[in-house]
Every structure is written in C-alpha cells, then in structure tokens.
C-alpha cells in the first residue's frame, strides 16, 4: 500500500473521530475494514491471474510449436504468474495490515521482485513488438531465431536484476506517523532516511527514462505494423470487389458464349452423325448387335460430357478476357 494513500486515509479518520482510537491495532483494523473492497478485488485478480497464466503456459508449452513468439509468450506468462503468486499476496497483506507491516525481509524481497518483473516484462513486450514488425513489415528479410530470443532473454534478465537491485536498499518496513496521540505505524515503503535523497531521485529518473524509451520504441514498431495491416485489408477489399464485378458481368453477358457455342455445337452434331453412320454399318439384315448398341450409347454419353466441359471452358476464358479489358 502506498504511503501517500495511507496518510490520506489516516487524515480522514483523524479529522472525523480522533478520540475513538487508543492503539495502533484499532487504527489498523479500522483501515482494514475500509479497504475490504480492495482486498476482494485483489483476490479476484489473484485467482484469475493464476488460472489464466497457467493456461497460457500449458498451451504454449505443450500444444504449440516452439517458435520465437511462443518462447516470448512463455517468458511473459511466467513473469506474470510469479507476480500473481508473490506480488498480489503482498498487496493483500498490505491491505489487511496497512499500518502493521513489520516483515522487513519480506518487504525487501517482494519489492525487489515486483520491480524486476515489471522491468523484465517491459523489455519482453518490446522484443515481441520488434519480432512482429520484422515478420509483418519485412517478411523476406532475416528474422529473429530461437538463439536470438534466448540471448535476448538472458540479457533482459541480467539487466532487470541490475536495475532492480537498488530496491533492496531503498525499501523496508518504515515507521509511519498516524498523527493520533503519538501512535506510530509501520508500512512497507521507501526508508525515511533515503526518501528524497539524490540516490532515490537518480534511481527514479533512470527507471522513468528507460520506460519512456521503451514506450517510444514500441510505438515506432507498431505504427508501421498498423499501416501495413490497413494497406493489406484495403487491397483485399479492392480485389474482392473486382472479382465480384467480373463474376456479375460474366453472368449477365451471353454474347461471347453464343459466338463460341456455334462451332462447338456443329462439331458435336457432326460427331453424333458419325457415330450413327458407323453404327448403321453394323446392322445386318435388320438384326442389331446389342454389344454395338451399348458401345454407341457410351460414346454419345462421352461426347456429351466433353461438350459440357468445352462450354465451361469457353465461359471461363470469356470471364478472363472481360476482366482483362476492364
């Protein structure tokens, strides 16, 4: 829980009924009752975050091929899962004991891990943005490989540990004045002897500058990706509309089909006459050979199928010619 929010809540209580509280335990319990909705909200985040990240780890770990994107998602889900398992319980504990957080070691370790996970996630998200930019905007150039991703992950973890290390010295269980009958509480926040010092200000400035640089880099990656996707959608829509117009023109125009149908029909009739002529030669004294009749019928059926195919081909080439003219 932030010390500023704690002070604001305490000031409200002090202005309303300062004489009601005689010990830090009473003040702590009163604040905890006020913050019950926050505790419930954090519990919901804890349950949903654990379930969601576990599902992501199972799917991307066992069901999906190990690509660069899958590895990055696994790392990001792992960081989020550890944040849910350690960071959210820490905040719940801060809500339940807003003025009685006396666990100094736990305060330092969790504060360090939360800073480490936040910095690492920011770097991983930017690597994902760069990977998408390469795949979408430059698909025919060299892409990130699994070796690149493993190297980048190692560098990100190392840099994040270095950047989060000062938190171990900055954060601790710090005394917090309540302003009520000289009662003092304890919160997990920046040590009073280091708050506002050059060390504290320089560290905050470095972290802020890194986040601004990462934000600018991520925006510079996703803007070309967005423009490229919009351009592809416009091209797809234009192509679909042109294909629909071509199909409509082919359905409503019969002139080319009639022109090309005539020689095909003539060839078909000539073939049928030839079949009948050859079959008539096989007639002897009014007796028809059943075997020859079967052969003639099959030949006529084959010619009919070929004629239908010729008609379909003529329609297809007619549509292509109209599309080329338009």
Description:
By secondary structure, the protein is mainly alpha-helical. The protein is 79% helix and 6% strand. It has a two-stranded antiparallel ribbon. Helix 3 runs antiparallel to helix 4 (68-96), helix 4 packs antiparallel against helix 5 (104-137) and helix 9 packs antiparallel against helix 10. It starts with a helix and ends with a helix. InterPro entries: GPCR_Rhodpsn, GPCR_Rhodpsn_7TM.
Fill in the keyword field for this structure:
G protein-coupled receptor activity, GPCR_Rhodpsn_7TM, mainly alpha, 10 helices, elongated, 326 residues, 79% helix, 2 strands, disordered C terminus, two-stranded antiparallel ribbon
| Elements, N to C (H/E) | HHHHHHHEEHHH
Question: For the residues shown, what is the average pLDDT?
Answer: 78
Indicate the radius of gyration in whole angstroms. 39 Å
* Largest β-sheet summary: 2 strands, antiparallel
In angstroms, what separates the terminal alpha carbons?
Answer: 69 Å
Number of E-state strands: 2
Task: Report the β-strand fraction as a percent range.
Answer: 5-15%
Order of strands across the main sheet = 1-2
Taken from the alpha-carbon principal axes, the silhouette is elongated
Assign the structural class, choosing from mainly alpha, mainly beta, alpha/beta, alpha+beta, or little secondary structure: mainly alpha
What's the number of helices?
Answer: 10
Low-pLDDT windows of residues: 256-262, 276-296, 310-326
Provide the helix percentage: over 70%
């Amino acid at each position: 829980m932030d010390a500023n929010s704690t002070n604001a809540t305490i000031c409200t209580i002090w202005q309303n009924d300062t004489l009601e509280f005689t010990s830090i335990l009473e003040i702590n319990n009163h604040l905890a009752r006020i913050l019950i909705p926050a505790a419930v909200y954090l519990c919901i985040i804890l349950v949903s975050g654990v379930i969601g990240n576990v599902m992501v780890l199972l799917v991307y770990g066992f069901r999906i091929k190990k690509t660069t994107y899958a590895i990055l998602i696994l790392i990001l889900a792992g960081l989020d899962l550890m944040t849910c398992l350690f960071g959210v319980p820490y905040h719940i504990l801060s809500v339940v004991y807003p003025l009685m957080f006396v666990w100094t070691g736990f305060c330092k370790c969790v504060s360090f891990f939360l800073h480490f996970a936040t910095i690492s996630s920011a770097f991983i998200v930017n690597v994902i943005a760069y990977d998408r930019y390469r795949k979408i905007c430059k698909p025919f150039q060299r892409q990130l490989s699994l070796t690149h991703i493993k190297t980048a992950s190692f560098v990100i973890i190392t840099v994040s540990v270095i950047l989060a290390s000062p938190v171990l010295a900055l954060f601790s269980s710090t005394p917090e004045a309540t302003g009520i009958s000289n009662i003092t509480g304890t919160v997990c926040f920046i040590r009073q002897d280091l708050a506002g010092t050059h060390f504290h200000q320089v560290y905050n400035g470095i972290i802020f500058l890194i986040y601004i640089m990462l934000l600018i880099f991520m925006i510079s990656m996703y803007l070309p990706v967005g423009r490229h996707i919009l351009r592809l959608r416009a091209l797809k829509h234009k192509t679909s509309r042109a294909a629909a117009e071509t199909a409509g023109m082919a359905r409503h125009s019969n002139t080319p089909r009639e022109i090309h149908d005539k020689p095909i029909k003539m060839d078909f009739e000539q073939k049928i006459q030839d079949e009948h002529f050859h079959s008539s030669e096989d007639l002897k004294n009014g007796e028809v050979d059943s075997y020859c009749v079967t052969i003639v019928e099959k030949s006529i059926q084959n010619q009919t199928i070929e004629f239908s195919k010729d008609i379909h081909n003529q329609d297809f080439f007619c549509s292509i010619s109209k599309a080329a003219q338009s």
